[in-house]
Specification:
The complex is a heterotrimer of chains A (281), B (104) and C (155). With 104 residues, chain B is mainly β. Chain B is built from no helices and seven strands. Chain C is α+β, with helices and mostly antiparallel strands and 155 residues long. Classes of the chains: A mainly alpha (281), B mainly beta (104), C alpha+beta (155).
């Protein structure tokens, strides 16, 4: 029987080039996504795919109950409120963020990251926010600054709550960027020599350092998060954390590697509803 | 100064379900400031009172062991839709905050 | 007109206003929480906390239900709900036994309020979370263990 793509990719983590070439030469992002889902649902048939948006919480009712209790009236509501004030405040030239985005910035986050054919690179929602700032005479925010970019996205992304993730990978250059992100995901890195897949594919649902590991499908829809109810973390900030936790040098946020990774990683969650600014431990 | 507290009050049958989210750092006095290395002094809400149509329904004393941005939920039998819930708090520095909401 | 007086007269809101006004002699320094039971809240063990609350030998009761996690996701914010089905409940106290100062909150209920309180507490380590209920002049208690882990992968 033909080996599933994922198994081949995992087996070939060390020889990634060969594995990818052999198994996924003709796989589309949508086929990849289906392969991932097949892999996870075979391992955990009792967990519904729609609950993958809860990550580790889907595996543990005790954790999910705490999430539900806290999300009923989140302690970080006032932080989101700060983000709302940032979003609504006009630039020095009188224009607002809403004017840079279709539909006033509502129900659009699921379209990001996207591949910008003119710039010939992946553009994330945060890149688009910074483009809006610079186009209106303001300085770009530092992506790793939770007080500025973090807080703004903590609000702005809630405007897309409920939107179905809808990342498009259509042109050959877009596919190349997607494949670069997939390569990062499956490459071993750091002193611990783990790939993202080592934990989030091979060990999804298992415990590592007392924590249940979440599957890669469903991860990208629920950012930013407020860890412990008050520690704001954006998605690329989390990637940064993961790199450091396997003791690898972390690539810069907003750079090609991180953006391509977010492109691939978000496409894996296509079809799932988004919810920004949620509680995590 | 602290941001306004949020009150949600709804009737389920003859019971008013009141949920309050207060905005406060609730410092225990044990936390070290990341930048200075100094202990951040204790600063937390100590007293919370809630009234419905002027009648006291809850009088709470809190310690610094209550989480940051304190949440309180309680239930009262007897009020009606439209009755006014008023919540007041005072903290260890003497700062106060008040908010009100109509039961929906 | 001096800035301090102008600010106080304008009712400028800010944490500094009360302190400023006190310092300027415009307000008598309030005894910040005459009612706050420092003896109970500053107590460093369960016994002293109970003494501070005026409670001795509370009876174990199955009519007190504590809803709290088995394992806390984050010890800084542990949701705890206490339901007391004991008739005439007048107060519920929540104690995290191994906290440096175990008494976390004391909730006095009146005017038709049910024996129920929901809040979120900090826990420094695995510990019993204890509820003490006063009803009809007597006191009752129940406890549930909540585990707190340290470490993990959260970035």
């Amino acid at each position: 029987m033909k080996q599933p793509i994922i198994t081949t990719l995992l087996a070939g983590l060390a020889g990634l080039g060969m594995a990818l070439g052999a198994a996924t030469a003709h796989a589309t992002p949508e086929q990849d996504r289906q392969e991932f889902i097949k892999y996870y649902t075979a391992k955990y048939p009792n967990i519904k795919v729609e609950n993958y948006i809860y990550g580790a919480l889907a595996f543990d009712p005790d954790s999910k109950a705490q999430y539900d209790a806290i999300m009923e009236f989140p302690p970080f509501e006032s932080d989101i409120e700060k983000g709302r004030k940032m979003w609504e405040a006009p630039f020095k030239n009188g224009k607002t963020y809403a004017s840079c985005f279709p539909n006033d910035g509502k129900q659009i986050a699921g379209n990001y990251p996207l591949f910008d054919d003119v710039k010939s690179k992946v553009v994330t929602l945060q890149d688009a926010i910074n483009d809006c700032r610079t186009a209106n005479g303001e300085e770009a925010f530092k992506l790793s600054d939770m007080k500025t970019m973090g807080t703004l996205t903590a609000y702005m992304r809630t405007l897309s709550n409920g939107m179905i993730m809808n990342v498009k990978v259509e042109t050959p250059k877009a596919v190349a960027a997607y494949e670069d992100g997939k390569k990062t995901f499956f490459s071993r890195k750091g002193q611990l020599n783990f790939a993202c897949a080592s934990c989030h594919v091979q060990n999804a649902g298992n415990r590592l350092r007392s924590e249940v590991i979440s599957p890669a499908v469903g991860q990208a829809v629920h950012w930013p998060v407020f860890r412990g109810g008050d520690n704001l973390v954006t998605l690329q900030q989390r990637y940064d954390g993961c790199f450091k936790q396997v003791r690898a040098v972390s690539p810069p946020q907003g750079g090609e590697t991180m953006n391509n990774l977010e492109y691939f990683h978000s496409a894996l969650s296509n079809g799932l509803p988004m919810k920004a600014s949620v509680f995590r431990k | 100064m602290a941001e306004p507290m949020r009150i949600r009050a709804t009737m389920t049958g003859d019971i008013a379900d009141v949920k309050v989210l207060m905005n406060h750092p609730m410092e225990t006095g044990q936390r070290k400031d990341a930048k200075t290395g100094q202990l951040v002094p204790a600063h937390f809400i100590q007293e919370v009172t809630a009234t419905i149509n002027g009648v006291t329904v809850l009088s709470a004393s809190l310690g610094s062991g209550i989480s940051k941005n304190p949440y309180l939920g309680f239930k009262v039998k007897g009020p009606k839709v439209g009755d006014k819930v008023v919540v007041n708090w005072t903290d260890s520095k003497g700062d106060k905050n008040t908010a009100e909401a109509a039961i929906g | 007109m001096n800035a301090l007086r102008r600010n106080v007269l304008k009712g400028a809101v800010g944490a500094g206003t009360v302190a400023m006004a006190v310092a300027a002699g415009l307000l008598k320094p309030t005894q910040a929480m005459a009612d706050w039971n420092a003896a109970a809240f500053d107590a460093k063990n369960v016994g002293d906390a109970m003494k501070g609350l005026g409670i001795s030998a509370p009876v174990d009761s199955k009519d007190i239900i504590i809803k709290a996690p088995d394992i806390a996701e984050n010890g800084a914010v542990v949701p705890v709900e206490v339901t007391s089905n004991i008739a005439g409940t007048t107060s519920i106290a929540i104690i995290a036994e191994k906290n440096g100062t175990p008494l976390v909150g004391d909730f006095t209920l009146s005017g038709g309020t049910l024996g129920f309180v929901s809040t979120r507490i900090k826990m420094g380590q695995t510990s019993l979370v204890r509820a003490v209920v006063k009803a009809g002049g007597k006191s009752y208690t129940a406890a549930k263990e909540v585990k707190v882990t340290i470490g993990g992968c959260g970035g």
